[in-house]
Amino acid sequence: MKRYIKFLGKALISFFFLFLVFKKLDFNTIIIELKQINIIMLFLSIILYLSTMIFSTIRWSYFVKTKKSIKELFQLYMIGTFFNLFMPGTVGGDVIKAYYLYKEDRKKTNPLVSVFMERYMGLCALITIALIGFFFGYDYIKDSLIDKLFYLICALFILGTLFVLFFPYEKFYHKLDRARESIKNYMFNPSIFFRTYILSLIVQGIGVLVVYFLGIGLSIPLQFKFYLIFIPIITVISMIPISLSGFGVREYGFLYLLSIFGISKEKAVGLSLMWFFTMLMTGLVGMFFYLNKKVNTNVDIS
Predict the structure, then answer these.
(1) 142 burial class (0-12, 13-18, 19+ CB within 10 angstroms)?
(2) Rounded CA gap, 41 and 120, in Å?
(3) What pTM was computed for the model?
(4) How confident is the model at residue 295 (pLDDT cuts 50, 70, 90)?
(5) Three-state secondary structure readout of 164-192
């Protein structure tokens, strides 16, 4: 029952933001914009986004204590991506990845820690890329909402890191102490931290490049340095689990933030929808792996 209430709540938030977006737009103009996209750029964006799944899997492997090969971990990663995109609000993709790892070794701590660290390193890279974008484009966004959002995200990231490392939450649930020690071991291991940080920069950098190519395909006149600023912010906001796969929230973010750079509302929302379409196409690969695993192992997630 709680699951369905949670799903309904997320759906309402997504539809609320979509309502705010589309009430300001000419729907026919959006359709025209989407039909005019350069197919080569769209195809290239899908291939590039799929490549980020490979780099993300390699990053995840540094935190997973398992005998699984990179190929097997890639399949689990894609299954998680499929659940995040196609079954939002039911079973999260990160939970799915942790579940399959737990089935193998029956150790509850490491699968959860591995998923957390993989996400954490991604956030580190996102903030780094945003910093680079701020350095090159701050004159264009100072005193705007982007300026304030960036400082807020940085502050929350630092506070969250301190909370995970030092807050005595093991007093409420003693098994979390072991999880904290595992997290510390990864964070304070220079070799693992540096390698996964570089991989995260590659993943997030390609992610920005994907949206940039989609922008070119939609004839959006915006320099690459500005994508470095707003894509990390929208990505972080979309990751907040208050909507269905960030749907609605992401579109509103594109609509507002791109208006600061003088991009039309229709082009901004069109870009957001094409980015989501690119992610959906990648998620279909995960559906294939999930159906194959379900048949071969007789395991279903409900």
Answers:
(1) exposed
(2) 30
(3) 0.87
(4) low
(5) HHHCCHHHCCCCHHHHHHHHHHHHCCHHH
